[in-house]
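Listing 4. Sequential folding, example run.
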Amino acid sequence: MSRILFTPPASDYQVSTDGSFRIRKAPTKPPVGARGDEAKKDNQKALKEHVKVISELQALLYAADRHSVLLVFQAMDAAGKDGTIRAVLSGVNPAGCQVQSFKSPSSRELDHDFLWRISQALPERGRIGVFNRSHYEEVLAVRVHPPYLEAQNLPTPKASGTEVWKNRHESINEFEKHLARNGTVILKFFLNVSKEEQRVRLLARIDEPASNWKFDPRDLRERELWPQYMHAFEDTLRSTSTPWAPWYAIPADDKAFMRREIARLVRETMEGLKLKFPKVSSEQLAEMKRLREVLAAE
């Protein structure tokens, strides 16, 4: 087995690579001792510290130009993906961060394999890339909605059945291993919101005028398919959490806790890369000294 570029940071929410993950056992709320107003303040304070360090590490990542970091976010509607991405990466230089959202594929994209459009959006070395939804839609939304798969005009007679998803999971694992071998560090976050908390947040989008723009009637239609989505998420996380691209099922009912935990994982992952500024040779130092004298004499 090829060497893995990094050791995933420890977390109670890391999805095991042995296929034992069960979504019904995955918590949607933080531990009892990490709830309440005081805990919220602590979480917000810790988040600020993590964001500060991530910003400093991103400068090193950019200068070293040897790795890229890819953060994948998947969740049910109203789980808090957009706000979490904004909160965790608020201190990062925009020049060093790329955020990509994937909508329904175009006709051109449908004429390629399901990973083709993803490969076009990968972060360059030295940058942090964020996928707000991702290639995993191809084994989640497409699995829940069979007509989406039929529209892909695949050569197989039947575009359905567990074999399709098993094959796609295998393709994703190999694709992500290829990226890891070439310097991309991958962290994948499933924001695990409860159905009740989603109901509360969807109601808020209707009741609060400032949030009306967020409401989409389609979210309620997707909500009716909750059991099918949970089955798809469970199978996918069990099958695609690997040493080189781990999944974390983060409790999402408490946004402050969720953001703190994700920021910690990103920070510790980047710290684990032991990033350093590029070394300057003695010849370069001598030339810099000479040019400094020129500038100073002007």
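-- end of first protein; second protein begins --
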Amino acid sequence: ENFCSKIERRVLREPVCHITGVQEFWSLKFLVNEKVLTPRPETEILVEQCLKALETNFSPLKILDLGAGSGILAITLAKEIPQSQVTAIEKSTLEVARKNALRHSVDDQVCFISADLMKTDWQGPYDLIISNPPYIKSEELLKCMPEVRQYEPIEALDGGQDGLDYYRFIVPMALEKLEEGGLLGLEISHTQADAVVALMESSSYYQNIQVFQDYSGFDRVVLACKRSQNG
């Protein structure tokens, strides 16, 4: 009966991870439900490239995760950089993220803040600011597969009319909250690289702007460094 009930839920296009309550990310198992965005393998590219950029500087780091969701970015970075202190901001529920931090024994490293990232002071400064913000165009939400459209939180998906609302806010604000030489890492839609790079290039304080592809060959991550005063 238990098996059949789960099959019936899947027939209705409920995501498998909602049925099992668990989704793997970075070879770690995270608790998930309908209140948080389902972790995607493409987001591992964001973690991977940020870690590579930080390889030469694994001294104690202050990290900010904008839009924590289930906590995958904050928790994965905390585990990969044990000496780091991570702040994670999320305006919806933090129940799942806090459970995941306990599950992976990094609850003493990660400070979760319940707030709207576009309406709160991020404090700072930070060595790394990382985010997988909502980036789907509002009009395209209805075109998403049922697993996404019917079961995932709309606020974690809707990036506004052109999908760039959050980037327009995060890119300039990050300059104020990053240490000199600090990194900004953003996940993007495969069509948004030029627009997000242009936002960064509009300020002379970002340098070494790079775009990285996912394993399907689509643009997926933009990484940039805050310029030091000495160049």
